[in-house]
Automatic annotation (TrEMBL):
GO terms for cellular component: cytosol. It comes from Metabacillus lacus. Gene3D superfamilies: Alpha-L RNA-binding motif (3.30.70.1560), Pseudouridine synthase I, catalytic domain, N-terminal subdomain (3.30.70.580), RNA-binding S4 domain (3.10.290.10). GO terms for molecular function: RNA binding; rRNA pseudouridine synthase activity. One of its GO terms (biological process) is enzyme-directed rRNA pseudouridine synthesis. This is Pseudouridine synthase. It comes from the Bacteria. InterPro entries: PsdUridine_s_RsuA/RluB/E/F_cat, PsdUridine_synth_cat_dom_sf, PsdUridine_synth_RsuA/RluA, PsdUridine_synth_RsuA/RluB/E/F, PsdUridine_synth_RsuA/RluB_CS, RsuA_PseudoU_synthase, S4_RNA-bd, S4_RNA-bd_sf. It is an enzyme of class 5 (isomerase).
Amino acid sequence: MERLQKVIAHAGVASRRKAEELIAEGKVKVNGKTVTELGLKVTDNDSVEVNGVPLEREEPVYYLLYKPRGVISAAKDDKDRKVVTDFLPHVKQRIYPVGRLDYDTTGLILLTNDGGFANLLMHPKYQMDKTYVAKVKGAPFRENLKKLERGIELEDGKTAPARVKVASVDKKKGTSIVEITIHEGRNRQVRRMFEAIGHPVMKLKRERYATLDLKGLNPGDSRELTPHEVKQLRAMAEHGKSAF
């Protein structure tokens, strides 16, 4: 279920703010009845009319993007910076990112116009695994890695358990490559976790999201998810198929 004004906006009829005005003015009907409640939620089975014209909803689409560094995880930016949707100009639907990757973080991000699907994947209780590869300063001791695995206290609370593996250590440069899998999505979480154990992140890339990876893609490349991949992600979220 999605809020009525969001459904209207996604159909391309008006912006979300204008859609709210139309609802408040009594120009929107749901299943033949005029509604003025902004918080009303509708399903795909509900009939929606705007100014007497039935709403034609967009066909749901699902894309995977290899986000480059220096790109905002948004559909638009008020500072006119490059955003993830700039890399999919061929997509006519009003897509938006599922969650976010930091400006300086590269890697896998999903985009869709399916709000229900996006909310399902982002909801913390469904625990979708996200795997990152971090280049960090120094060589973390095993005890520090165990802190991350057990969950570590940050300013916004203790993190959920993580899976952590050191891939390599460069003693000359004083850096390490560490793979970490989490299922939360707090702001700059991975960076803050490594800072908390004294090993700041120098570079960060999300390599996997659940069963999806970046195989065959370069930064800025995208591809449409297959129906099987969409079905699999939805099933994993609904049944809590986390690796932990």
